[in-house]
Each structure stands twice: as structure tokens, then as C-alpha cells.
Amino acid sequence: MDNPFQDPLRFERHVPECVMVIFGANGDLTKRKLMPALYRLAYDRRLSTGFSVIGISRTGMTDDAFREKMFESVKEFVGDGFDPEVWNSFAQGVFYLPGDVGDLESYRRLGERIGEISKTREVASNVLFYLATQPSQYAEIAQGLGQAGLAKDSGWRRLVVEKPFGRDLESARELSEKLHRHFPESEVWRIDHYLGKETVQNILAFRFGNGIFEPLWNRRYVNHVQITGAESIGVEGRGAYYQEAGALRDMIQNHLLQVMATVAMEPSASFRPDSVRDERSKLLRSIRVWKPEEVLENAVPGQYGPARIGGEEMPGFRQEQGVKPDSQTDTYAAVTVLVDNWRWAGIPFYIRTGKRLPKRVSEIAIQFNEAPLQIFNHQEDFRAPNLLILRIQPEEGISLKFVSKRPGAGMTLRPVSMDFNYGSSFGERSPEAYETLLLDAMIGDATLYTRQDMVEASWTVVDAIRQVWDATKFEFPNYAAGSWGPAQADEMLARRGHCWRRP
Amino acid sequence: MSATVSPENILKDLGNLWVDLARQGGQGGSGVLRACTMTLVVLCGEHDDQQAIGETIARLMPQHPSRAIVVRVSRSAEWSLQARVFAQCWTPFGERRHICAEEIEITSAESALSDVAPLILPLPVADLPVVLWCRDVRLLDVPGFAGIESLANRVIFNDAPVPIVQSVLTQGKAVGDLAWTRLTRWRELIARIFANRGLAVLPNFSQVKVRWPAPSGYYMAAWLEDGLRRAGAQPRVEVDIAPAHERRIELVSPDLSVTVSQCSGQCAEIRINDAAHQSVLPETSEYSLMREELAIAGHDPVFERVLPAAARLAVSS
Fold this sequence. Notes:
By secondary structure, chain A is α/β, with parallel strands linked by helices. Chain A has 15 helices and 18 strands. Chain A has helices at residues 28-43, 63-78, 84-91, 104-120, 138-147, 169-180, 198-209, 239-245, 247-264, 273-285, 292-298, 422-425, 433-443, 452-470, 487-494, and strands at 19-23, 52-57, 94-98, 127-131, 157-162, 188-191, 222-230, 299-302, 304-305, 307-309, 312-314, 332-338, 348-354, 361-368, 387-393, 397-405, 413-421, 479-480.
């Protein structure tokens, strides 16, 4: 029976009592993202009264030392909104346990600590295990939790894992198989923080909450789609890690293909987690997998070289610390994606991402077909295509570009933009992606989490490209830091009569 | 301020206001963005604290940017009608650009109230919802004010008599009352008591006793009755009008007694048979209540379901 007293329009979503165990508690992700997100949830009174955090890492530390460390980082990353009183109350539920993920004794002690905390803070036996560690430790931790009997109990036990979910299809399957030995798929929560961003969620509202866009959302009216995830920074000291990953694996396999799936998926029958995820998954499985001989025409890798930007010398990727001088790693990737279904057949989705591009911007641009008959001749401007731009960051919002008559005599046209700015229409602070996603995991709403079939579908697409790239020796570097990527990426679009827009 | 108070002059003043703001923003180089998601018409009561209302509206603007039209009544006015326009601006954290929403303030002498409605009717922003915040129901009896009410997509009252609120609903209009909004955190607390395993006991409750200030008490009793009936119970409902510090509800079944009552400070005590614990309730203000109400764009199904029973209880007590 549903609770007859529920009022979903007004009541906040009920967050059950739980303990969150963070493996890798001494790492950057915990300091920069997880703890600030948890603090903000506490500030907004979204967490349950007895909510507790147990941080685990190898470093020896007391509870108080861990609290002090987290206090400093939360204060730094939350900024002006920091309230010491809220922190003091929140910190009473923050604990620390030194432990090695390879040592079974650590899990036994963890079990005892969960038991103690559940008792003293009157928390039900619900536990969220968050793996903020090296991906190579995921399977080991799942096994440790399973062997110590922590993967099952009277309450729920959920395992949240960060990307990358494997390095390719084979390793992704292998990882899942290892996790599934102890946690069923329904309790494995693969987090993709891009999907937690408000504007990405807003794509669903925009498409399926309005009547006017969906009729245009198909091959008949859409000319092509460009998805950009550009970063202005370089590898920022993560050269050694990045050298093994590359842009295709680091951004396209997960974030950008998920965004694309959200833009292109069919409407789901309901807004239930599995309905939405089924449609996203179906879309990913409809992506055409390039044959080896098609790859180089439809997927362009790039690597930045040195440049002088704003009077400062920027090193090329090969000059970054920890990077081999002859590295073949892609710091830029541009891919043409075709979707083999009735809605999108023949419509290219161009996806690009890169480091050291001119600015940090993530957006989706849907370019519509031109008017069938051009009656305003001899003008260049009127050819500006209609564009619908969904801006993910930095300034979340939606813009529609169209042409308009310039005031004055004569029929001079010029492109104009109609802007919706998320921040100004809704003055409330947009929650950070991690706030949304952590809350969803506690509540049990998996809509924004990635399922194994989705991971496998994306790896299938990416592996086909990766295998050809790995077997090819590219002339790197092929773009200067601060530029919009290699010329070959422009040529890739030009072959289909298109060009990259400048975000 | 325009020499003659007319809709045309007010709209002209608004146009000039935006030109001025754009100039000021342009000089600073950061620009001004106009934000508007609705028209909010506020009918203030004669005894309302005008400054407090002004502050509430200013606080609401960043969350619900609107064209706010505030109607004030002045008994001491030597003139009959005055209007002024101004902007409420704010700068989002980390941005340089100002965001502004517009406000029209109309002050009327009591004798000129009947001239106010024709002034307001042309002012709402086209194609966006109109929300009427009626702080004094007596104003709806002023000639022409019914026209303002019918213009509104949603009417929000401040502790209006329940039958009046219901009469607006019977016209098919979305309606709210801050007397109901004040109950949200209490209702949430009660819903949590019965979440999951607690649901099984709901059909056994045979009696509901509510001690609460009016009109919120009628809503609380009607809501409890509605919830229990939906769970299969046939409760007898009693409402006692009591001061705020004595707020208390009691649900009784043959083997279970659940009491939720006000304790000192912003807190509620929940007692289930002999076991008791306390829960902190966040403080409410007119700003927080209106913020919650304005977040609801259309009909509020739970309130509207409860309203007829609340009206029945109000009339019968």
C-alpha cells in the first residue's frame, strides 16, 4: 500500500537512514567532491538525522584528524556558503578507519564499526559503499566486502563505482562479473557525474515536457548534431594516468555518449528509473559500429603541442610530467556517430572533446535544416542555420538561434539568439551533480546511473575506434594548445558538408 | 512617476525603466538581464506591514522572478491613486551581470479602490501565469476586484475562511492558502511516522483529535481524515481551536495511540504509546511559505482533495 499521507508536490524526497563508507577517503575526489556535496546536503537538511560517513584509506588517522582534514577541504570547496554550526553537527557523524583494501581484517573491523555506529546513532542497517579509489581496486574491495559478509544484510547494501568502468569491452565485462559475485546488478551503482548535471537532466524535461520540440526531433528536420566537451586545462599533473586513458576513453565512452543518448533516445513510457535507462540503452545499442576501414574517416584523434597563450608558454602533452616523449595518447577526439534507427538514420552526431582547447565549454548544438525555399537572395547572413543549443557548462541554459530582419529600410537579415538562462529563471542554487547523484543513491533512484548493458554498448562503439587508433602511428602533436583541435577534425565534417561551430 | 495614473503610463514607465537599467548595465560593461516567469499580483490588507511585504517580495524575486504588482490601501491618503515602477535586481554569485525583475506599486485611497481593477487588468505579462496573493479577502468584495481574481491562474490566500477558499476552487481555479502551507513540515513528519511498516496500522485508527489554530486546524483534521479513509479506516474527527503553542494531534486505535504535539521552541514531540522523541521543525516565515506556494504552478491535488472536508468541518464547528 502507498502511504496515503504522501504529498510528492510538497514533501522532500524521504532519505532513509544510512551509513556511507568511502574507500579512498584521503583522495582528491573525497576532498573536492564527495564531502562538499554531503556537507551541502546536510546544510539543506536533506540527510537523515543519523546519517554517518566512515572514511577508509591506508593513512593512519584518528576520527578527529579526519574531521579536521575534511573541515579544511569542505571550507575551501564550499566557499562563502560554509556554516561552522552545520559542519559541527554534520561532523559528529564523520568517522575514520585506517585500512588496507587487500587485508580481510580491515573489512572485519569495518563491519564492527558499522555495527557500533548503527547502534549509537540509531541508523538502520543501510550502507552505501563508495569506491573513490583506483579502478584496479574495485574488484578487490567488492570481494573483501563479500567475504566479510558486508555485502548483504537486513538493510540495503549499495556499491557506487566511479568511471572508468573497464578499459574496453572485455575488461568492463570482467569487472562486472567480479562485482556481481558479491553485489547483484541492481546494487551496483555506476556513477557518471555528467548525468547529474541539472542541464543534462533538463534535456529530458525540455524534450518530453514540451509539445513543440519533439515533433522536430528527427531526421526530417534535424540536419546534424554537435556535442562538445571542451576543456581549457591540460592534464594538470595527471599525465601518467591520462597517458593510459586518452580523450576517447576518458570522456566520450562515458560522459558524452551518455549525453548523446539522452538527446537522441526515444520517449520512455514513464519516468521510472528502468524505463528511462532502457531507452538510453536502446539508443546506445543502435549506434553504428564503424568497420576498421571506416574508422579513420569518422574518428579523429589529436594531441596538443606547445603554444604561447596569453604571454605564457604552454607545454605540449609530450612535455607534461610523466608523459612519454613519443606518446601516442589522444588528448583530443572527434567522432562521427550514426544512429541506425528510424528517427535518426543518416543524421550525423559529431562528438568532440579535448584538453587545452580555447575554453571550457560543454554543450549540445542541434542544427536544423534550412528553409526549403530561400526568398531572401544575395545575403550571406540569412544562411545562418537555426540552431538549438543546450548549454551544460559553464552557463547552463538553452538558446535558439534564428534570423531576423535588421531594423531599417530594406530587407537585411541577421542571426539573433533567444536565450534561456537556467540561473536567472530559477534563482535557486542548482545542486552540484554529486549532490543529486548521492541523494539518488541513498533514496534508491537509479535513473541517472549507468547500467552494465549501457556500459557494454558504449565500449562496443569505442573499442572499434580504439583498435584502429592503437594500430596506427599518428603524426602528433597535431594541434596547438589553445586551438580548436586538428585540421583533420574539420575535414571530417567537411566531407559531409558541415563545419564545427565555435562555441 | 507618471503624472496620470493609467495602464499606458505605467507600461511606458516600465519601458523607460528597462532602457535606464540597460544604460546603467552597459556602462558597467556587465549588462542587465530581465527575468520574468509570472505576474504576481499582491493585494495588501489595510493593516499589513508594508515594509515587511516589500522585503518578502524582494526575497522572492530571485527564486520566482515576476512582474510584481503590489496594491496597497492608504486610509490617510490625500490623493486618490498613485503608481510607481521600480526594479528588483540581484547579482548571482560569481557573475557580473545583474538580473532584474520589475515591480509596480499601486497605492490607492480607500475611496478610489474601485478604480484599481481597471488599472491592473492590462498590466500582466502576456502568456505567463498570473498568481494572485490575496492577503485580505475583503478586498475581493470591492467592485471590479472579482475581475482581478478571474484573471489569475492561481489564487493564494492568507488564512482566509475555508468556505471562501473552497468557493474559489469551485470556480475551477487553482487555489492555495498559507494556512495549509504552514502544515507542510508537520504533515511530512506524520507521513514519515507511518512510512513502510507503519502503514499496516492505519486502518485501525478510529479517532482523530486535532487541537490547532483556525483555519489550519480544519485543514489538518481533514487531511488526516482523508489519509485514514484512503487506508480503509472510518475515523471520528474532532477539531478544537487552540492557540499555536498548544498544537496537538492524536490518532487513536484500540491498541495504539499516536500523538504529535508542539514542544517549546521549533520542535514537535512524537509519542507512540509510551515511547516519545522530538523532531526539530524549520522556522517558517511568509517568505518561506510563499516560496513554497509559488513553486506550485497549477493545481495542488492534495489540498484540493482535502478542501471540501475542511470546509465542512469549519462550517460545523
